[in-house]
Specification:
Number of strands: 16
Largest sheet: 8 strands, mixed
Helix content: 25-40%
Shape: elongated
Distance between the termini: 46 Å
Radius of gyration: 28 Å
CATH topology of the largest domain: BirA Bifunctional Protein, domain 2
Structural class: alpha+beta
CATH superfamily of the largest domain: Bira Bifunctional Protein, Domain 2
Number of helices: 15
Strand content: 15-25%
Length: 423
RNA sequence: GAGCCUGUAGCUCAACGGCAGAGCGCUACACUGUGGCUGUAGAUGUUGAGGGUUCGAAACCCUUCAGGCUCCCCA
């Protein structure tokens, strides 16, 4: 073998079996999105670097995106996220769009990161957003879309949970502790890290950030208070809506969910695999109020979330929820008895295709044993044979590879016989 | 960007510094008009790549690539 050129680090090759999983996820994503009336859309896969430099930190853009100079000397970036493109496209047609806008998308993204479990450099991501409505009920709808997806892939609430929190609630709690607004970013970072650090080290880190002991104790009380949501009118309304939407069993309040503070301003939520097999979120999102600020549009509030295909795929596989792989879309194989019968097989296959049946012809005359073995391995359910005897009588041998039974039928009746067997 | 672990047949993995192997899969035949099951026989390797130490390296050392687990990050 010649020396092989490896695939780019962090990319995945989609052999038919992996492609089937990707398509399975895509189909469920589409079904959940459309069930709530969302429209499919997409943005360019490459954008100018400026689009991201405006909003995201420069470090992020420089170190964690695929950016390169094109032949004209411009710097372009393989999109690491969809939100800036969404903001631009909404702003460009803000005057003519019919609000609320409900849009969803599923496509490729790239991030130049260290690949590890649940994270690759090239991945597919479901994005779904509602723009132009600012209410807890709208937030609930997005959470319900996510829950509907989980339910549709049969990830039950014991296996996957959506944790919810609210930024405004946390801000007011922080305020009550006398934590200054400019410290909020640090504190939310601190909260995010809590599960990753040893308690003593976490305490020390908190004090290092400038909290005093009273504030630290207060913060711990907040993070342990799972009834805190009752103090937030938004969350009370949110949970009432979730109940009415029939997804309450998937959703839990958790004051530890922060999701950074980059642009979320209200409700935030994250879905996790409860088995702990993958520590990364299945999906996450929330409400953002300042989406269009940086791209020159009128103020517009939105709520949305994103789900990568990598974590979702791992969890589905581990849970045994991926449908059995079907190697070929053909339900029928027409064998080629010998060279003299070859064209007869082609003609038969053509008739069956016209009748709406996915039909494959063995590519050459070969031992029937070999042809049937092939059909078996491809899990094709029905094999047809036209030999000299059948040809002489205008018949076809129809064999079910499921039951092993074979019947000889008239050529005109073949399609109906196949349909009967496939039922 | 940093640390640790791993890399051997198509797959899963063995092999004390001393002849590179097993199971599964694959191919052929038994079975020249029919798959699965069974039996018999057979094929397959630059041990990720490159360099070094050694009489001798899959093994030890260095470099590099890829994967995994952490840190960082997670838009």
């Amino acid at each position: 073998m010649k020396k092989s050129i490896p695939a780019v680090k962090g990319t995945r090759e989609f052999y038919p079996e992996e492609m089937a999983l990707r398509n399975f996820i895509y189909e469920k994503v589409r079904a959940a999105s459309q069930m709530f009336g969302y429209q499919e859309w997409d943005a360019p896969f490459i954008e100018t670097i400026d689009l991201y430099a405006a909003k995201s930190g420069e470090e992020l853009v420089k170190k964690q995106s695929f950016t390169f100079e094109d032949r004209g000397g411009d710097f372009v970036t393989l999109r690491p996220e969809l939100t800036p493109s969404l903001a631009r496209m909404i702003a460009a047609k803000q005057g003519e769009l019919n609000f609320p806008v409900r849009w969803w998308s599923f496509g490729p993204f790239w991030r130049y990161e260290q690949p590890q479990r649940g994270r690759t450099r090239e991945f597919f991501q479901w994005n779904i957003d509602m723009l132009g409505v600012n209410s807890p009920e709208a937030d609930a709808e997005l959470i319900a879309v996510g829950a509907t997806f989980l339910r549709s892939v049969r990830l039950n609430p014991e296996r996957a949970v959506i944790y919810v929190n609210n930024r405004r609630l946390m801000d007011s709690e922080f305020d009550a502790l006398g934590i200054l607004p400019e410290k909020r970013l640090d504190i939310s970072n601190l909260v995010d890290r809590r599960t990753k650090m040893e308690p003593a080290k976490w305490d020390a880190y908190a004090l290092e950030l400038g909290l005093d002991q009273r504030q630290l104790d207060g913060l711990k009380d907040i993070l342990a208070n799972f009834d805190l949501w009752k103090k937030s009118e938004e969350l009370v309304r949110l949970f009432a809506a979730l109940e009415a939407l029939g997804v309450k069993e998937y959703v839990k309040f958790d004051p530890n969910i922060m999701r950074g503070l980059l642009y979320y301003t209200g409700t935030v939520f994250e879905s996790f695999d409860t088995s702990g097999s993958v520590k990364r979120a299945i999906f996450g999102g929330g409400r953002y109020d300042n989406l269009l600020a940086d791209v020159g549009g009128q103020p517009l509030s939105g709520v949305g979330f994103a789900m990568g295909d990598v974590v979702a795929g791992i969890i589905l596989q581990e849970s045994g929820l991926v449908p059995e792989f079907v190697p070929t879309p053909a339900s029928v194989l027409v064998t080629v008895f010998d060279e003299s019968m070859w064209m007869k097989s082609f003609e038969l296959a053509s008739e069956l295709r016209s009748a709406g049946l996915n039909t494959m012809v063995f590519p050459e005359p070969a031992k029937l044993q070999k042809q049937f073995k092939f059909a078996d391995k491809m899990k094709i359910k029905i094999a047809l044979t036209i030999g000299p005897d059948e040809a002489a009588n205008g018949q076809v041998a129809v064999k079910s590879l499921t039951t092993g039974e074979q019947v000889i039928v008239k050529r005109e009746a073949v399609a109906d016989e196949i349909r009967r067997l496939l039922r």
